[in-house]
Write a structure and sequence with these properties.
Order of helices and strands: HHH
Structural class: mainly alpha
Shape: elongated
Largest sheet: none
Strand content: under 5%
Number of strands: 0
Distance between the termini: 101 Å
Helix content: 40-55%
Length: 153
């Protein structure tokens, strides 16, 4: 014996087909949305996964290294601590650059990119003007830092 609704209307009442009602009004059943509620607008996709973020244990060493390196670079240049000032300043610059590189790699790992550059794995090539702009800014900063440290001697 199959489980299902019983057909008890033997006296000529409304008969049900085995797969549901025969007629629907406007292609919509009674328990679904009305024809006026349905729209032909485009659907909006929403990402359900949370956005990747840098955690505090990833950020703390980067921030600490950057602060220590910046202080090591800035104090000898500002106060000119004798003959060892240039060495300490270059070491501070090196530590600051290491912290910046570490921060960029951590940001890249969670999916962040530099402004103007395509996302990782998108298949798009970066624009040469943006890359050359970043290279010029970096080159300018290095030239100014080396020039200032060389002036200490």
């Amino acid at each position: 014996m199959e489980a299902g609704p019983r057909d008890t209307a033997h006296d000529g009442g409304e008969q049900l087909s085995p797969d549901g009602p025969d007629e629907t009004s406007g292609g919509v059943t009674d328990d679904g949305p009305g024809a006026d509620e349905m729209s032909a607008e485009a659907e909006v996709e929403v990402e359900l996964r949370p956005q990747p973020r840098l955690r505090i244990w990833q950020l703390a060493p980067i921030v600490i290294l950057a602060a220590v390196g910046s202080l090591m670079f800035a104090f000898p240049l500002a106060f000119e601590f004798g003959d060892g000032g240039a060495v300490v300043a270059m070491l501070g610059l090196l530590i600051s650059c290491c912290a910046a590189g570490w921060g960029m790699m951590a940001a890249r790992r969670v999916g962040h990119t530099w402004p103007g550059l395509p996302e990782r794995g998108s298949g798009h090539r970066p624009d040469w003007r943006v890359v050359s702009g970043y290279a010029l800014v970096l080159l300018g900063a290095v030239v100014l830092a080396v020039w200032r440290v060389a002036r200490l001697r």
